[in-house]
Records
---
Amino acid sequence: MSDVSLSEKPVEELTLEEAAAELERLSAEIAHHDRLYHGEDNPEITDAAYDALKNRNLAIEARYPDLVRDDSPSRRVGATPSAAFAEVRHSRPMLSLDNLFTDEDVLDFVEQVRRFLGLPADRIPVFTAEPKIDGLSLSIRYEKGRLAVAATRGDGLTGENVTANVRTIADIPERLPAGVPDVVEVRGEVYMGRGDFFALNERMREETGKVFANPRNAAAGSLRQLDPAITARRPLRFFAYAWGDLPRLADTQYDTVRLFETWGFKTNPLMVRCATVDELVAHYRRIEADRASLDYDIDGVVYKVDDLALQERLGFRSRSPRWATAHKFPAERAFTTLKDIEIQVGRTGALTPVAKLEPVTVGGVVVSNATLHNEDYIKGIGTSGQPIREGRDIRVGDTVIVQRAGDVIPQIVDVVLDKRPPDAEPYAFPTLCPRCGSHAVRDVNEKTGRVDAVRRCTGGLVCPAQQVEKLKHFASRHAFDIEGLGDKQIEFFHALEDDNLSIREPADIFTLKAREAGSFRRLKDFPGFGATSVKNLFDAIDARRRIALNRLIFGLGIRHVGETTAKLLARAYGTWDHFAEEMQAAADRSSDAWRGLNAIDGIGEVVADAVVDFFAEAHNLEAVARLLNEIEPEPMEAPVAVDSPVAGKTVVFTGSLEKMTRDEAKATAERLGAKVAGSVSKKTDLVVAGPGAGSKLAKATEFGIEVIDEDAWLALVEGL
Ligand code: IVH
């Protein structure tokens, strides 16, 4: 039977041998399409055809569980390892590189190599030159063409086994082409692209309030996750540039790396061969000039002797090879003076100190503002109370060191005490909001007992700074997305004294047209506005009178509620009224509403507290009520799980449950597309009654609603 007909044979008709052959074929084929799709952004088949391959693989695995392969596509994402990372002893040490900083250092390095090899003074070997990627190194071992073990560098001799996580990285092939040696160890750098890093941080800021300091940390943190499903959602990439255990397959470094490319690895396009020191330095300058336009961080250029026979002769020092070195870029830091410290007040009242600097060029960019993070940072105290900068504080007038790190916002990293003016005073962080004069306080975290690093204005909506920032957020792209109402316009409308034209709270945006119509002064007469732009603005505002529920929730600017959280809440509650009702009920921390909120996958206690706190403030409720007079939030349909017997049904749990908690039962029901209600009505489809069920059970019987016990419920949802 030919392969073509085998690939079309119905799963039920496959023999054991045929099933094994099909699983092998599907594993390779799916890996191939994964590579095209994720790695090259160039899929060969439609999503539907891809899904069909995955489904066939799953169907065969379901029929023949014993045949599930180590490299199965179904294991590539979401397999959970049983314990933390095991140790892997490297077959050959993973070494580090010596660093060079100047052109002269390069000449010295090349000279040392020449002398070591006993070459004549006018002959140097060819070198490769390539970017030094700022990620973390990884060694991947293939046995008989299949990915067997992947390990981090660790101490160079022993690393961590991160195989399950590495299987989720699309740049790393699961299988190598036929004909490769039995044992192949490819090494290289795992990294995260800068764009991906920013997007990830945005998501993390919303979901956890914590962010990674730079792409390198993000890559390391993502690779060393205990749950590979988390790694799978992180956009990790990989460049192959070295190897461990590997028979000689080519004569040069360059050709070996090229070979890796034909095996399906990504290699860096900026690797070149250089025959002279001038060429090495010229390539270094080129890469340095291109640095800002690359989508990933690099911190230098690596030079390697190209000829592998010469590499072997040169060998190693204790921790680094003699045949390779790193020419580092100068750190992107500069000295300048701190002219002033300005306090900005954010949407949630956070007081952020911003350094006003004598403008200075840092890594090719002029910097005149830098963050000072918070009050403690200025004092020389770190986030856990430990001294930073050896306890040196930062004062206006100081000479400071500014650094532009991977995360764009420049920061002050140190001060030069020798240059401190004699009259410089320690900075007194304001305890009153500089914008509204309300007290600015540092909360104590009830759980940890620690004082919050951030001082916040207590003025709430009374504070003009918070008002403006909240309005900017409300009108911004991911919230109400009102065209023509950008930050500048918000500031303009907020500053207007005229009550007919000013915007102080969200509802004012929607009443503007009517107020303006009755106003003595007309908007079209203001500089910067014409009749057309006023009409366009009113049209843009009108276009948002119907708004998706998640955009409304996000737009309110509730602390810790970012776009993702807003979507979760909108999906869980469906309508504004239901959401608002439940959030007010949740003020009672022993209520079903509070438990329900916390049971939403992705909502933690910090977020839950923040949402409930928002709804506990009368002035918030009043402002929202005024807004709802003007707009109509669209209900959000809960996504209905396919093939679930309870999808779209309304379920009520009553009585005591013995095998699961109420929250768990509710979460399962919701995951399967059911709506969980607290009381029985004619709309109820199913009642799950445990022992002690009282009036709800009676009502269900009265309405003729189906009633089942806990075991029947479990049987119904088992395996879903
Ligand atoms: S070659 C035996 N090439 O730099 C030498 N390393 O400081 C093997 N790195 O641990 C390393 N980009 O993580 C090499 N193109 C590149 C590199 C590179 C980044 C890292 C690697 C290594 C560290 C050494």
---
Amino acid sequence: MANTEYVKNGALRDDALKGRTIIITGGGTGLGKAMSTYFLQLGANVVITSRNFDVLKNTALELESLTGGSVLPLSCDVRNPEEIDEVLKQSIEHYGTIHGLVNNAAGNFISPTERLSPNAFSTIIDIVLKGTVNCTLALGKHWINEKQPGTVLNIITTYAYTGSAYVVPSACAKGGVLALTRSLAVEWGKYGIRTNAIAPGPFPTKGAWDRLLPGEMAEKFDFKNRVPLKRTGEHQELANLSAFLMSDFSGYINGEVITIDGGEWLQGAGQFNGLESITPHMWDNLEKLIRMKKGSE
Ligand code: HXC
Ligand code: NAP
């Protein structure tokens, strides 16, 4: 039976992020927008960035009217360190202190690796790995110079652990972000900077679905069937986890990666997980065969 009893509401108390200012890359769409919404509901100011200013501006207006909070939309390509410095400068001018960074911006598409040009490969590495490095470096240097604590949250994927065919640049880049997360958690812990990651399983968004499940792929490769809980993730479930990791309630969590995937990646990993398709009648026969072997060696 499918697990359909799931939370669609916020999990944290109302003031969990009160007075905080958090920069969220890719905050105008998809999961970035969901996290921004919940951070605002918990009392934070949010700075949302991406390349498309019109999208950011519309999201900012929508979220301010929905939550009553304050959103600063700033266009910025995470591949360009100068644009990130400008975001930092304007965010400080606007809000004074920056408390957190969510590295959520990403680029991805499915493709057999042998069809990729060097530029296609590096485009994904540049956005996902180097973009995350660029933002983290800018904020980290700022916090260290100002002797301020900070919190970094990196959005990775479960195939950062396993690798994955057909999204190889993304797998390489997200694997690098995982290494960055664990490395900086140790190196920057002494400055009061916590670094953690979330590895989401499938959470339907237009950005991901358009590039990973185009056309008939959405039906042929229905993610629900790959997940032991037989459903995809709710955006609020990811928002709840990210808010917890950005809040002081997770103050002793540093260098951790939390998987939120309904058990999907482990389903693919366990050697005998495929036995799901065996019927009770077949199990009766198998059990008999196994028991008959007792003492026959
Ligand atoms: C092969 C491709 C290609 C494709 C682009 N390229 N699409 N190669 N197959 N389908 C090649 C181009 O030909 C070019 O190489 C190079 O990649 C760069 O392409 P541009 O279009 O110039 O790049 P750019 O405008 O910077 O756009 C980046 C992008 C695009 C990644 C290609 O898709 C994008 O903007 N994505 C942002 C949002 C996104 O991807 N969201 C999904 C995240 S989902 P040449 O050699 O021709 O110059 C995710 C989670 C996964 O990460 C897990 C889900 C379960
Ligand atoms: P999405 O809506 O496409 O989000 C990606 C965001 O990144 C967009 O807002 C995009 O905006 C921004 N972006 C892309 N390239 C950028 C660049 N060079 N500079 C600045 N911003 C850039 O997809 P999503 O599903 O919400 O993905 C959000 C995060 O979750 C990603 O890190 C993704 O890898 C991760 N994730 C998602 C899933 C899922 O099932 N949805 C699963 C695992 C992990 P612009 O194009 O306007 O710049």
